[in-house]
Amino acid sequence: MPVENVSQINFKAPHFYSKDVREIAAFIANTAIFIGADSGIMHLACASQTTVLGLFHVTKPERYEPYGNGSQPINTSTTSLESMINMIKDKLNQS
Fold first, then answer.
1. What contacts 17, CB < 8 A, 6 or more positions away?
2. How many domains does one find in the chain?
């Protein structure tokens, strides 16, 4: 959730909210995979030693890609939804 704790989907999906960066990192560290846009939270997920699939559209994946723990970037401009889903399945099967 963003710092404002506002949901674009009216809180219909499971969510987590905290302003404590350590608590957020601990939560992410206990997940099988983190999927998110190129952002500070994506890099926090990498630092939490979680497998990350970073979604890139505007920024260059070659420069800001997630690294370590089997993480990889996904260029949403050139990757089909079906390919993204297959990448997610592959990463989950490796866990």
1. 1, 5
2. 1
